[in-house]
Structure formats: structure tokens, C-alpha cells
Records
---
Amino acid sequence: MAPLRVLCVHGYRQSGGSFREKTGALRKLLKKHAELVYVTSPLPVPRLPAPEVPASENEPVPGPGGDEDQRGWWFSDVTARSFSAQQQCDESLGLDESVAAVREAVKELGPFDGILGFSQGAAFVAMLCSLQEQQLEPEFSFRFAILVAGFRSACKQHQTFYRAPLQIPSLHVFGLEDRVIPDSMSRELLPCFQDAQVLIHAGGHFVPAASAHRQTYQDFLKRFQ
């Protein structure tokens, strides 16, 4: 049985490369069930002095790779080109370019069975699934979505993505000790999906891949093999 092909969408201040490094345990856990393929956002995050980037509002900065590897899928502060999950805004910057980048990744690297996103990437995955179900992106044909530390965007411009519950089967993963995206924010995304399964872990802001989580991931993926 061939493994499922899953497109992986990194978090804010990450890249496809850094996200791949951080999810090595997940790739090992799922190697018989899924091939994980990583995409990088086209939007570089401007370098800011450390005090101007509150750790509580942003993804942890990745390790080796430098500022050129720090990307985002949209900016909530259009002027500063920065992002905070809690920031309410009327409009965002960069979302169209990011959708186009995923469209190209699907064309060049697909087809994909499913899509996985982390943090801002998970919020972005919910939007991509909405575009798919509205038949606005004919290239997209994802059969399932895995959203880790996901949330509903606070941007008014994005509320059209949440008008109707999405039909795509989804697995929502979040940590009770997450200080970046509190579990309450991830729970607010659940009603946006008709068939939402949940995996709750005791940790913080990361993709869990302990042996205790294997069965939930595998049972979910087996539905599509």
C-alpha cells in the first residue's frame, strides 16, 4: 500500500526546511503511512529587533538558517509586515501570493492526498480548504486536513472562509500548555469543520509525535488509504 502524500505548511517565522527539521519525529512515526512534502511561503518576514517581537505572539524563531528562512503566510499588520494571531485587522497583506505559491506547489509536486499545517500554517490550511470547497481553486483536491495549533484568523477580510462548516475530514491537534496559540483558540476553529477529530496533548507549541500519539494519527490516515 503506497503511503499517502501530504503537503506540509509551516508556521510563522519558519520555512519548509526548518519545519521539516522540526517534524523529523513525525516523519518517522508516520513513515509507513504518509510521505510529507514541504512548501515554503513566498513572504519573507522583515528582520525586527528582538524587543519588538513578543515571544507570546509569534512562532519560536527557528535555529540555523538565518533570517532569510523566516517566512509567513500573511501579515496582520500591513505597515510593519508583521503577524500576531491575536491582532484584529480589517485587511491583511500577502495572502493571495501565498495561495498562488501553494497552487504552484500542487502543480509541480502533487498530486497530494492531504494537507497538514502548523500554527499560522494551520490557520492558512483552513482557508485553503475553504477555497477548495468553494471551487475557487481547481488545482486543490485534498481529501483530508491535519491542523496543529490552528486558529481562526482575526482579520475581517478572512471571515468569508468561515461562513459554512467545511466538509473535508480534519484532525485538529493542540497542546494544553501552548503559550503561543492557547488551546482555547484552537477549539474555536473546530466548529468550522463538519467532521473534526481532535488530538489533545499535554505539551506546548509543537507538533507532537510521541508513541502515545501514533494510533490517533494512523487511525485517521487509514481512512484514506
---
Amino acid sequence: MVSREHKKAVLHEKLQLLRSITNSHAKKDSSIIKDASNYIQELKHKVQILNQDIASWEQSSSYQNTWPVVTVETVEKGIQVNLDSESDCPGLLVFVLKVFEDLNLNVLEARVSCTGSFHLEALGAESEENGESIDVQMVKQSILHAIENWSESNDHDQE
């Protein structure tokens, strides 16, 4: 059984630890707890300010995600490819469709938006002559490689 003195010593030790963490100079236990509470409020306020700074930085005009996000998944009819970019990507569609051609994927359905941003949804199916199953990761890697090639070609065009 733990003695009352031992419990009191453990509590005192924990309060002294709290006092050191919060940089409190208080002597009374209640004052140490009050200082800790104030310290927590200050930290909450700092976190709030940092979150506001992050939000304003993300919304600023200098922040712009120009690299397209690619998702590829297997669906009932074939392979679903989604590409999204916050900036328009002139010429990217040609590079992506070349990947479909190189992988012998027939485009069954496609939706593309290129005004102010770039968005592509495409459903591809394996062509009849291709007996092998298409690997989703291979398709994604091929599209990412095509995006790199597109980016490099745009960099050379701007020089």
C-alpha cells in the first residue's frame, strides 16, 4: 500500500516538473497550476496565429501547385485515370494520350477541362490484341514520366 507521504512526494515532484516546463517562479502549488494554465493558453494562441499564417500563405498568389496530381485505379470497365492541376497545362493532354497509345489502351471515355486549370478524367481499356493485364502502377509511372517530359519541353520552349 502506498503511503500518504509517498503520494504527497510524487505530487510535489510532478508539480515541480510542471513548474520547470512552464518557466514558473511560483512557490505555491495553486500558483504553479495557474501559471501552467496561462502557459497552455499562450501556446494555444501561438498555434492559432501559426494556423492563420499557413492559411494566408496557402491562399496567397505566390502559392500555386503547378504539378498535376495523378490517380490511377482499376475499375470494372478498365483503368480510370484522373489528373488535376491548379494551373492550365497547355499541351499536356497530347503527352498523356501518347501514354495510352504506347500502352495499347483504348480511350473509352474522357472528360477534359483546360480553362484556368487542368482536369482530365479518362477511362481506358486494354485493346484486344494485348493479352497481358495492365498494371495500375505502371500506368501511373508512365503518366508521371509523360508529365516530366511535358514539363521539360515547356521549359525549353520558354528559353
---
Amino acid sequence: MSINLRSVLISDPVDESCAELLTSYGVPVTTKHKLSKDELIYEIQKYDGLIVRSETKVTGEILAAASNLRVVGRAGTGVDNIDLLAATRKGIVVLNTPGGNSISACELTCALISALARNVAQAAQSMKEGRWDRKLYSGFELSGKTLAVLGFGRIGREVALRMQSFGMKIVCFDPMLSSDVASSLGATKLTLEEIWPIADYITVHTPLIPQTKNLINATSLGKCKKGVRIINVARGGIVDESALLEALRSGQCGGAGLDVFAEEPPKNPTTLELIQHPKVIATPHLGASTAEAQQRVAVEIAEQFLAISGITDKYTVTGIVNAPMLSAAMSGDNGAWIDLSKRLGQLAARFFAKNVKSQIECLTVGAGMLSKKFIHTAVLVGVLSGQTKNGLNLINAPTLAKDIGIDLKEAHLEGETDMVAIKIGEHSLKGTVRNNEALLLSIDDAIFNNGIVLRDFISLYHANGPQDLATIVNAFSSKGITINSLYANGAWLAIETNQDVTIPIEGIEVY
């Protein structure tokens, strides 16, 4: 799947290297910042692509108005300012730059951990105020202390690597991580309940999702060591700010380094009091605010736009948020398998008139097919062709299928020949890719030994012997329709023509 990228709007301040790279490949770019909602709704209709940072809120209302929009890119990691469900339903790809600001966010985290241990910010401020408070700001060594990293992805791992050099013991929590992988990175994977009572420092590096909202709260803080220090350079809302303030007041929490807040800029009285607390080091969302990170995410999002458009094969897509299988689908020889799956799906949909729509099974066969998870979605694209008025692609096909009651059952079998098999009710189809061409191998029990090349116009007839075959051929000839090729086996007849036409013939089933 490639996107025709004719024009791109950049609606937030993004390093100029982004626009420079896009325009160097002939993609027109318009930059307009601080657009109101109504201005953006009007403006977005002109563009195929939109690039934002965190200021622009890409809501469902804005996406609904974007008749030509095909891709939204976030020059950064989080995408909480983009309505993913609305984008997915409309078939709009959402990209981010997952590795672009990892080092910058990691380094700020490490700086906050060190600053909390040695009271750097507070001592520096006292010096500016003319005081010499050596005893007041005596700190602690990091060596031998336990650092808990909640979320052991790119940033969490970089933090662990650096803090190990300080002699810290690393424990981590990540439901997607195996204990063996954690161990190979010098960390011990534990449950949250195991982490709370042993951690001296806790740093969070998770996305803000329902499962992580207020992950650090009054209950979890109450289970922690007295004097535990909390660091959040991830997303505001992961730490319950009112609970943290209370823990600081009671001494249960010994300090906090906060770069992100539930509301930015903060206006809530509780948050403002938290920021003013003498044991808190607060920064205004600086995790990605380095010259290197800003340029890196700008270039990375532009590279992905170019890759997904097919303008160049120099770059790859690394940050698809709402359709992970799309990345695999765009690589190697997978394009031919997508084409085959769509075409098989289109043929399978012809059996709907006599069968219940929910009875669709898609089976991949062969060792080479196990990783091609996108096959099932591509089959849905074919099945849904002509059955929905919405724009249809690999992104929104599962959602749209569910909307109209189609349930695709997925399975895989080992086999000598890589192939795709589809079953609807009593009918089945099998196909494969050979020499980069999509081939139909069989319909039900009728096997086409050399395969039928699936081109644009195929008519299927369930015939009964040579007389029916002659009747069908005469019907096409009488209409002046050229038959490019004809394949017959058992009761099935497949006719390839040079136009999209199906001729009903009395007494013969046509699909």
C-alpha cells in the first residue's frame, strides 16, 4: 500500500529539515502554525498529509472534514493529541517517530535522578539567594541504590544502561518484556507489587493509556519505601499529582523530578503547589527539547512520509501507530501477496448471495506465510470492495468488516507450498504467488494445475458439461466481448475478459 502524497501541511513548529527533505523529493509543503479549529478544518481539506507535534489537536471532527487526508505524522513519540480510532476508521495512517527523542528524554531522566540525589537545583538556588547551606543540602550516593524502571522500552532501557554505570541496581516492570530479555540487559523483571517496597527511585516510561493513568497513586506510594523518589519524563497523568503532593508533605516521598503534567501549562492549584514544593524539581516538558532531537524527529517523520508514498525506497516506515502490520506489508515481495489476497477476497465475496457473511475463514499455508499477518486484512479489503462507501484499505478494513457483521477467522498450517486459502460456507478458494503474479489454484475441488493469473476481469460459472460451456462462450461472443482466456475444470469455468462484465445465463449459476 502506498499513498499518493501530493501536498503536506505542517501545523506545528517542526525543524525546517522536515520541509526541506520533503520538498527535495518534489512534495509541496505548506507551513501554518497556531491554526484555530475552524481554520484547520478549512485548511486540511487541501492536503494528503499532515505533520504535527503536540500543539495541534487532531480530533475526530477535524479528521471527518479532511476529505483528502491519508496520513498524519507526529514528529515525536506520543500521539495522544490524535484521535486514533477516528483516523483508523477513515483509513488514515498515523505515524510517529518512536526513536527520535529517546536519547534526549533518557538524558533528562538521568539528570533528574542525579539532581534529586544531590539536591542540585535547591542548592544552586540557595547560592543565588546568597546562602551557604552545606549541611541542609547534603545528599545521597546513587551507587548501590535500586532504580525501578516502569516501562522497559527504548527510553527505559537507555536510562537503565546509563544508571548502571553509577552502580545502581535496576529492576523493571513491562508486561511485554520477558525475564530473559530483561536479564540480558542487566535488569531484573518484577511485578509492581514486588517493586514498590524495594525501589529507592522510580522512573516511568510508559504511554498514557487507561491502564497507566495514575499508575503511581496514593495506594502504590503507600507501599513504597519511606523517602522514595519519583521521576516522570513520560506523560502527565501517569503520576497522580495530588497523591504525590500528599506523599511529599508526609515525607513518604523524598523528592520528585517532573517534566510532564496532567495539564500543560499547569493551572490546577494542586499542580502549582506541587511544582513549588522544595523537594520537587520541575521542568516545562523538556524531554525532547534538544537541538539534536528536534532535528532527528523532523527528518525521521519526513523520511517515513517519503517511504509510505513510494516516492523513494531509500527510507523505511518505522512508526505506524494504528496499523502495525502495514510496515511488514510494505516490504520485500509482500506487495504481490497483498494483491493476491485482495483478489481472492473479491472472488470470495461473490459467494455472499448464498452464504452467511460471518462464515469466512482465511488460512495461510507454508513456512513462508507464518509472518505475513497482513494477508488476512488484505483478504478483508477484497471481500469488502463494493460493500462499503467508506474509503477502504489495510488500516480500516477490520473495523469496517466488524461494522457490517463480517467475522474473519484466521489460521495457519504448515505445508510445502506457500498459499492462501479462503472458505465461505461450502465454497473454497486457494491461491499463490509465482513470478510475482497472483494465481488462482483452485475453486472447491476444481484444481487448475498451472494456476489462473488473476487479472482485473474474471467471471466464474458453475457449469454442467460441454453444452453449458458452449452456451457461455456464445453468450459472450454475441455481446461482442473478447475472451482473453478460458479455464475449465470439473464444474467450474473461469473466463478472463477485457472488461468488467458478468452475463447471466438461464440455468447456469454465475458468480
